[in-house]
Amino acid sequence: MRILSLFLLLTFLSNGIFAQESEPKFWWKRNNLRVIQTNLPDYEAATLNPDSLVKDLVDFSANMLIINAGGIMAFYDTKLDFHYKNPWMKNNMLKEVVDKCHQKNIKVIVRFDFSRVHESIFKKHPDWCYISAKNERIINTDMYVVSINAPYVQDKAFKIIEEVINFFPIDGIFLNMPGYQVNNPYEGKYHGIDQNEYDKKRFAEYSNGKTLPTVEDKADPVFQEYLAFKKSTIEDWSEKLHNLVKSKNEQIAICTYLDKHVDIIRHESQTSNLPYWPYSASDNVSNARNSFPKHIISNASIQQISFQSRYNAAEPEEVSIRLYENIANGSGLDMSMMGDMRGYEDKRNYPVFKKIYAFHKKHEAYFGNYKSVAKIALVAPGSWPNGDPMQEYRGIQLMLKEAHLPFDIIEDAQLTNVADKVKQYQLIILPEITYLKPEAIVLLKELSKAGTNIIATNRSLFDSPETLQELFGAKIINKDHDGTGFYLQPNDAKILKHFKLQKMLFWKFNLGLYDLSGTDKKLFPILSKGRPGPPEIIGGHEPINYYAMGIKEFPQSKNVILPINIGKLYYLHGYEEHKNILLDAIDYVMPKAKELVQTNAPERIEVILQAYGKNVANKNIGSTDNGLIVHLINLTGFSGNSYFDALPVYGRNFTIKTSFKPSKVYDLATKSPIKYVWKDGFIHFQLAKIGEYEGIVIDK
Fold first, then answer.
1. Exposure pattern of 507-516 as b/e (b: 16+ CB <10 Å)?
2. Parallel, antiparallel, or unpaired for β 664-667 and 64-71?
3. Measured between alpha carbons, how far is 385 from 409 in angstroms, rounded to an integer?
4. Theoretical Cys-Cys bridge with 174: which of 251, 255, 279, 597, CB 3.0 to 4.6 Å?
């Protein structure tokens, strides 16, 4: 009997029933990726040396390579007549790369791009390709953009992927540019909704006979149905891909920019138009990680300045910030470059990659297994925000970052999918979130009644008047009102604590006119434009009986409506008093918001606080009970339109709220101890110096 009991116990342990520590079933779940992607031009297939490539990967501490395989062109000896073969290619190149990488324990994910076909394929099958309402094709030299619902994507792409899986022992596939195409991004030209006959037929089937729209008009219900159609068809294709790949080998990871039926969500930090966004990686990773918590996130630092300037890389200081933000927020390291590392046209970033990848490798036990401790959630307008909503969203982020207020980002469409997580926040901020699903609105109302505070800015929820009235006591009179030349008047020193020395605050951009009679407090009376000049006649700024802030109080929560473009204004102009409007609002509805992290570090020191668990082989990475880690990323070298070396910062104090008495506190890089005082649930310590990055570990 005792022998049988022992046998059963060992069986249970081996099956993980009683086990506390186990290796993740899938290799990518370790979340310790150090990715280098070589986007090979066709001619480099002739000169690429697999031995030197693998040597470089080892020297740079990479543990994963992304390299071309097929789609636009085959980088191997394809047997499929509809798969254009790279004329420069050496037949064994891809096989040698995969084999030699595996000898060094480097995973290989192969890249596919099914957005285009070669002219030779187009001439045989023009019906496979995109055509606009003006009968235009999207062409890049001799490559033609395809239609997602035509046979090439719906059938031939799967045959190409299957061939590669059959030929090579790959570890994953990466899909570039999935989905519907309306632009020629390489030339910056918009072409419009694809009018391919296959698209027309499938949309008619989906919509019970409706005609495919030709104009992207959000006010058009048919276009709204088309958006749902696009989402449905993309997810259908992704599911078919998932079923194919996993039927071949469940250990092959699927990586792309989508979230359904994939294993690794990839995002990109790019050098975009001014103003530059130094928090790009934090933005991307926090958004994806909190919106899709079951996925691994890999945020790529894109080397090129732009599609039109591929031979120049982003500044090394910018790349350094991206990589540190990646690991601080829960991504691995990831970079994407044009071509092989040998002969690259701009090698200025190589020392940065080498240093930070080696740092990650040495200390990877402290990365990739995090749980946020933030009590504030910022709702993002999608995973790739743009236009006015993006500017409003980024401006609010900037305010929170500079105030050292920890926060998580959650995509607007994912709120109900992570409802249990959302219920844990004490404050939710809606930065011009103009539309939410009905079920998400129901969730917000439930949260408000349960004690969660809500702050909404600019045109948030304008299409749900009942919600604005119920949650905020607000009614829209004019949501699109040019505020240029108007002023706001601070009128309550107990709430608006930053404005004791200021009687008027200038405005620009949108200044919504809302009826706030349903609120409990109305702040910032709006003053008319008056007379801006000449100096001899200025004045005449009088109240117009509208207010820029309303507060509605509930038994357990407070909600604030700011029907003004406060985020955009701060993002573009950076006038600190506009930031102080939001900070005063947060302080009023959530007085303990500042308790989690208190510091006299400069605003340009990004502070990211995480609960962490040791991430080592053969350990359960689900547990985050080892303690806290404070990531400090030094952005003092960012000047707005240039990146320079970060300035060292000396003698700064930190107070961190903890639920445990620390056993030790130390510097991650050197493991040297840091003196601290722990009292009443708070740990106090001082850092002698903050360089470009510091990791401070607070162990239980």
1. bbbbbbbbbb
2. unpaired
3. 13
4. 255
C-alpha distances in Å from residue 336, one per residue of 231, 299, 339, 561: 27, 10, 9, 41
pLDDT value at position 616? 85
Cα separation, 488 vs 77, whole angstroms? 68
97: CB partners within 8 A, 6+ apart: 48, 50, 53, 54, 65, 67, 108
Distance (Å, whole) CA 683 – CA 665: 10
Residue showing tokens 């109240």: 543
- For residue 321, what are its two tokens? 């910030």
pTM of the model: 0.94
Of residues 356, 367, 292, the one with CA closest to residue 610: 367
- DSSP state, 33? -
Is 122 in contact with 128 (CB distance < 8 Å)? yes
Tokens of 531: 């007379």
- The DSSP code for 213 is P
Separation of alpha carbons 458 and 616, rounded Å = 45
Q: Which residues are CB-neighbours of 298 under 8 A, at least 6 positions away?
A: 33, 35, 255, 264, 265, 266, 267, 331, 332, 334
What are the start-end ranges of the E strands in 397-480?
Answer: 408-411, 427-431, 453-457, 475-478
Q: What's 659's DSSP letter?
A: S
Distance from the Cα of residue 229 to its chain's centroid: 24
| pLDDT at 618 (0 to 100) | 64
CA dist., res. 552 & res. 195, Å (int): 49
* CB count in 10 Å sphere of residue 321: 29
Q: With contact defined as beta carbons under 8 Å apart, do 421 and 396 qualify?
A: no
The total number of residues written for the chain in this structure = 700
What backbone phi and psi angles, to 5 degrees, belong to 439? -70, -30
Residue 396, amino acid: I
> What pLDDT does residue 617 have?
76
The pLDDT score that the predictor gives to residue 16 is 36
Q: 350-362 and 316-329 helices cross at what angle (nearest 10)?
A: 20
Q: What's the per-residue H, E or C state across 371-421?
A: EECCCEEEEECCCCCCHHHHHHHHHHHHHHHHCCCCCEEEEHHHCHHHHHH
Q: What's the token pair of residue 652?
A: 């700064």
The two tokens of residue 262 are 């994939």
The span from the CA of 334 to the CA of 35, in Å, is 4
Q: 338 with 304: CB under 8 angstroms?
A: yes
232, 206 Cβ separation under 8 angstroms = yes
39 CB-contact burial (10 Å; exposed 0-12 / middle 13-18 / buried 19+): buried
State the burial class of residue 316 (Cβ atoms within 10 Å of its Cβ: 0-12, 13-18, 19+): middle
Helices and strands (H, E) in the chain, number of each type: 18, 35
| Cβ contact 304:287 at 8 Å | no
What is the model's pLDDT at position 292? 96
Residues of the chain falling short of pLDDT 50: 1-21
The Cα 29–Cα 550 span in angstroms is 45
Torsion (CA) 56, 60, 64, 68 in degrees, nearest 10: -40
- Rounded Cα distance between 477 and 131, Å, is 43
Question: 280-291 and 387-402 helices cross at what angle (nearest 10)?
Answer: 100
The residue behind tokens 């000896």 is 77
128: how many CB neighbours lie within 10 A of its CB?
21
Burial (Cβ within 10 Å: 0-12, 13-18, ≥19) of residue 407: buried
Rounded to whole angstroms, the Cα distance separating 526 from 530 reads 12
Orientation of helix 566-573 relative to helix 576-589, angle to 10°: 140
DSSP at 504: -
